[in-house]
TrEMBL record:
Region of interest: Disordered: 1-70, 161-189, 235-257, 271-406, 667-705, 767-790
Protein name per UniProt: non-specific serine/threonine protein kinase
Organism: Saccharomyces uvarum (Yeast)
Catalytic activity: L-threonyl-[protein] + ATP = O-phospho-L-threonyl-[protein] + ADP + H(+); L-seryl-[protein] + ATP = O-phospho-L-seryl-[protein] + ADP + H(+)
ATP-binding listed as a keyword: yes
Length: 790
């Protein structure tokens, strides 16, 4: 356990004993400091991580002096005791997590924003205000360490036992190709079906009656005509023939005998007891002497497997990055209770999520069409182009310059090739066991909640790939949740096709492990940002590429839900790719106009949108938009604006303040104002005439949106403010963002078709930073940090 983890645990204990009981409304009073943000940084103690959050705030406020008349009160609609130190904002706490690793990165850095003189000018007051001091404080000390105390849980959003209702019913946020009326009333297809009769049955025509049972009985027959009577012997013979045929068919084809999810489920749980009891079996087997792929799918014993699989070692438990890489999906992490999670105090059994929206059935439905399209296009040696749901956005198909995907070189895909090895592949020779086709090479790339990622070399052509070995099932995780998570990544990995989304080459089941072979990207964006070498233009390029990936996802009805620096990788040509779809959800099915809301607190704390922490259900698209903006802010500032979007986080509280509104719930549930033709009666004006304690003051950069925005380049402020609107209904959607003049003006590196292949066209105003491979990935950075600590 790292010393930080220990510190946090001690702190949580202290807080638990000091804290007051939960209340149904949490009204906090904050006095914004009169000092600008950078001054706060310099005044900040480096040791307050272990101190009580509220008292610490108080002390800081006293130290910096209260500002009469600027007391702000913001009410959060729920309250729970955060067990982490969220008192100091990340803006305030830049020295809080000082680490030698981070300090070492300063050595690379000539200036905070890279070497581009032009880019420095763009920042105007930011550079002047923060200068060199900003470098030492902003210089990344918050970014990595924040990760340590963040955590991810997929839990249903109960708050103090009370489920906060769905937010999206009031959100006029359109689904691709949808009409808004449908969205608002039918935001959840499952609830729609159950309530349909009650709602509409009264309106049925008189000649139709509602079906009230799914048991269909045959009509009674009194006498049977002789020609329909079959002799007993004939019947016996026929049924024997039938049985024989069925057995033969089953023996021939396992893959046809069940659904995809049940196949996967069987695969995961077909372990024999010997392997199951061996906790060290988690290693990826690359030995050429493979015992051969397991072919025991038919004999899999789900019940045995689910109890016998060992609890995996949490490789990143003590990592400085671990918290941001915490369980995304569907299991409860008892080791890292989310400091922010409303589920903190729930017993494990209650906090295992039951998300309706990413269920296997849903995913299968979503991918049924798109997968077949994708695969068939591959088979035809054409470059797959398109998405299951077209929203009018031309989705560029792509290939990877360095990959075997060059057109004309598309081997036929196979889906579960019958030898029990390759589940999905469009790679050559996938009938040969994985361990005979690849060898492990180099260092590990990283490990997270979903598994560990290693570097492999394909023997046949020496090409390098990244291989993710999915983790085994946790003891306290249901088979359903486990299979759901893996299935989700499988479906998404094998379906998506976009230059800014990682390419899955094949998915293999071997020696009871699920391995996802992906194209390899040389750098983690996190590592590049931490190098402090990025120019402003380079940051903008990466941001636009991330947005382009998000636009593609949203256009096909998918939301990522865990966008963060760690989940963006970048290749040596400067192409950014989104990875880790373990938390992704479908919000719109092909040909459906209904919005399917997401549920659960899923994501990584500093990147979470506020509504995720408040509502049981929410539209996942604005969540991606918010997270993308936080990524941008992190790239610019080299730190998080706050640790978690809750009022207990002082920085976030200040960000919510000064908005002529006392309640966060009111701010988050706002809907866009109708157009006003009379300035004097505009709703905005009316609001400020009200008696709010949180009077807006655009000149005070410590409160309100300007708390974050003023630190960003001026040209970015408009669209970033649209992306971090507290109300998801008012947040800009991805298409609006892409149309923003500044975003449009960004010169972005992109892949373009070049005959039958693709090539990268670099942006004309920047080059992409490259770092030494030893620190290009999170695992390398961790290693380096450990070394420095010893
Ligand atoms: N295709 C790739 N190319 C290069 N590096 C990669 C690739 N995929 C993953 N990595 C590295 O492995 C790390 C872990 O990958 P990933 O996020 O998929 O794992 P995870 O277990 O799902 O993590 P999380 O805890 O975020 O859920 C990444 O942060 C990155 O450093």
């Amino acid at each position: 356990m790292s010393s930080l983890t220990r510190l946090l645990q001690e702190k949580r204990k202290n807080e638990a004993s000091n804290s007051s009981p939960r209340t149904s409304a949490d009204t906090l009073t904050t006095t914004p400091e009169s000092n600008p943000l950078d001054a706060q940084v310099r005044n900040k103690s480096s040791t307050h991580i272990g101190s009580d959050s509220n008292s610490n705030n108080g002390e800081r406020n006293r130290a910096t002096g209260l500002v009469p008349g600027s007391v702000t009160t913001v009410t959060q609609i729920y309250s729970e005791e955060d067990s982490s130190s969220t008192a100091g904002s990340s803006l305030d706490d830049r020295n809080q997590f000082s680490s030698s690793f981070l300090n070492s990165n300063f050595a690379h850095t000539a200036s905070l924003y890279g070497t581009s003189a032009q880019s420095k000018d763009r920042f105007g007051s930011l550079i002047n205000d923060q200068g060199a001091a900003g470098l030492s404080s902003y210089g990344g000390s918050s970014l990595a360490p924040q990760n340590r105390i963040t955590s991810r849980l997929s839990v249903t959003s109960h708050t103090s036992g009370k489920v906060i209702p769905s937010l999206s019913s009031s959100i006029p946020y359109s689904v691709p190709n949808s009409n808004k009326d449908n969205n608002s009333s039918n935001s959840n297809s499952s609830s729609l079906s159950s309530s349909w009769l009650e709602t509409y049955a009264g309106g049925l025509p008189s000649n139709i009656s509602a079906i009230d049972s799914n048991v269909i009985s045959s009509p009674k027959v009194d006498s049977v005509e002789p020609r329909f009577i079959i002799s007993k012997q004939k019947l016996q013979k026929a049924s024997m023939d039938n049985n024989n045929n069925t057995t033969a068919t089953q023996a021939r084809s396992i893959s046809r005998s069940g659904s995809f999810s049940s196949q996967l489920g069987n695969l995961f749980f077909s372990k024999n007891s010997k392997e199951s009891s061996n906790p060290n079996s988690a290693g990826m087997a690359f030995s050429s002497n493979s015992n051969g792929p397991s072919t025991s799918i038919k004999n899999s014993n789900v019940a045995n497997g689910s109890t016998a699989i060992p609890k995996p070692i949490r490789a990143r438990q003590s990592s400085i990055y671990s918290a941001s890489r915490q369980p995304t999906g569907s299991y409860t992490d008892n080791l890292y209770g989310s400091p922010s999670s409303v589920q903190d105090n729930l017993p494990p059994s209650q906090s295992v999520p039951r998300s309706q929206h990413s269920s296997i059935g849903d995913l299968k439905r979503f991918f049924k069409k798109s997968s077949s399209n994708n695969l068939s296009s591959n088979n035809n040696n054409t470059i797959p182009n398109g998405s299951p749901v077209s929203s009018g956005i031309a989705v560029p198909s792509h290939s990877h310059s360095s990959s075997h995907f060059a057109a004309g070189n598309y081997p036929s895909s196979n889906s579960y090739n019958g030898n029990g090895d390759t589940i999905y592949s469009h790679a050559h020779g996938s009938a040969v066991p994985f361990s005979k086709r690849y060898v492990k090479t180099g260092e590990d790339l990283g490990a997270g909640a979903g598994g560990s990622v290693k570097l492999v070399q394909r023997i046949v052509d020496n090409q390098i790939f990244a291989v993710k070995e999915f983790r085994t099932k946790f003891e306290n995780e249901s088979k359903r949740d486990y299979v759901k998570k893996i299935t989700s990544e499988y479906c998404i990995g094998t379906t998506l096709n976009h230059p800014n989304i990682i390419e899955t080459i094949e998915i293999v089941y071997e020696n009871d492990r699920i391995l996802q072979v992906m194209e390899y990207c040389e750098y983690d964006l996190f590592a590049i940002v931490m190098s402090n070498k990025m120019s402003y233009e380079e940051i903008c390029c990466c941001f636009k590429q991330i947005l382009t990936g998000v636009q593609y996802l949203h256009s096909i009805g998918l939301a990522h839900r865990d966008l963060k620096l760690d989940n963006c990788v970048i290749n040596e040509k400067g192409v950014v790719k989104l990875i880790d779809f373990g938390a992704a959800v479908v919000f719109s099915y092909p040909f459906s106009k209904n919005l399917v809301e997401a549920s659960g607190i899923v994501g990584s704390d500093p990147y979470l949108a506020p509504e995720v922490c408040i509502f049981a259900k929410y539209d996942p698209r604005p969540v991606d938009i918010w997270s993308s903006a936080i990524i941008f802010a992190c790239m610019i500032l080299k730190k998080f604006p706050w640790k978690i979007p809750k009022l207990r986080d002082n920085s976030f509280k200040l960000f919510c303040s000064g908005r002529d509104c006392d309640s966060l719930s009111s701010l988050v549930t706002r809907t866009p104002d109708p157009p006003s033709y009379d300035e004097s009666h505009s709703p905005e004006k009316k609001k400020s005439e009200g008696s709010s304690n949180n009077v807006s003051d655009p000149n005070n950069v410590n409160i309100g949106p300007q708390r974050l925005l003023h630190s960003l380049p001026e040209e970015t402020q408009h669209i970033v403010s649209r992306m971090i609107d507290l109300a998801p209904a008012c947040r800009g959607n991805i298409d609006e963002i892409m149309e923003d003049p500044w975003i449009r003006s960004i010169s972005m590196c992109r892949m373009v078709e070049d005959g039958l292949t693709f090539k990268v066209v670099e942006g004309d105003d920047h080059h992409h930073t490259q770092v030494d491979q030893s620190e290009a990935h999170i695992a390398g950075l961790e290693k380096k940090k450990k070394k420095q600590n010893n």
